[in-house]
């Protein structure tokens, strides 16, 4: 008999990486199986930290379960799409109709769908560095090439417009804007958004706007949808219930096509084809959208000056920046911090190994910066979702580990 050949994964996956749920998490799971308790600061899964979905959303889903057995229109039910249309009007995004709105199994599914419909081999998409790694993965998986533009830590992590301009080629099809930003917590000023639009305008680029954290805003900051600032550029805006409404598991998101749609008919036909192929988004999650967008916005309580998220952000930021050699731009939005380790005090060359060592010694799970396509191995991301007691313990363990690290390299 011929030798059995190993079954290998697709070569399309060679450039795909998603370290938020990567090898370090696998190590953490093994440690948990051995009975060790891990403090997980690796993922923005709000329910795991006691942030429950608003009760009115839960009740509406329950009441509509009897109506949820059949497929819906491939783009989704009319009423939730109508509520998304009204939301775009609140955000001042002009010209959005019901047909411009696609409901999906979370924004993640729609990101992959949008890339699959657009990209051919060799096409390039500008993606921020650092980024939410699904964007880079989706571009690669769709046959395209992600090209990372720099976000400037010295300018509160805003995109470096000159770096964007330098990286545009004849193969560049689009630019991704993650605002509010994961992993940095940055919130982009209108002036920066306008500059990005001008670059897109000059080079005929699609703007993909990931705005999933647009209500998780601190210190009285406000969010501007980039699609509200022009109508002569094609915008694809993505959002959903996962973060603003603490409904990660409901997998309920939406995608909005706006701006210069006349020259995008073929691309939109591709989106329609892919939407039809997956039949429809999960129906119970669709029923949650109208209630969420039209109901009491409890996220405002959590991000108020004395709200739980604000207090935990402030605590984590202070404890991290009190550690020698650790600096961190204070997040204006989202659920994360992206601290920097001074390379002179922490000469790290392999930040995944750094994350392994922190996990092994202190049982704290973080994600290394290169997992977000950070260009240097001197950052890591933490979520500040644990309650104050657990968060204090986690930050204390990180401080103790870094103190030991400094002693070892002296």
UniProtKB/TrEMBL annotation:
Its cofactor is pyridoxal 5'-phosphate. It comes from the Bacteria. The keyword Transport does not apply. Its EC number is 2.6.1.2. It is an enzyme of class 2 (transferase). One of its GO terms (molecular function) is L-alanine:2-oxoglutarate aminotransferase activity. Residues 37-398 form the Aminotransferase class I/classII large domain. PANTHER family: GLUTAMATE-PYRUVATE AMINOTRANSFERASE ALAA (PTHR43488:SF2). Belongs to the class-I pyridoxal-phosphate-dependent aminotransferase family. This is alanine transaminase. It comes from Paucimonas lemoignei.
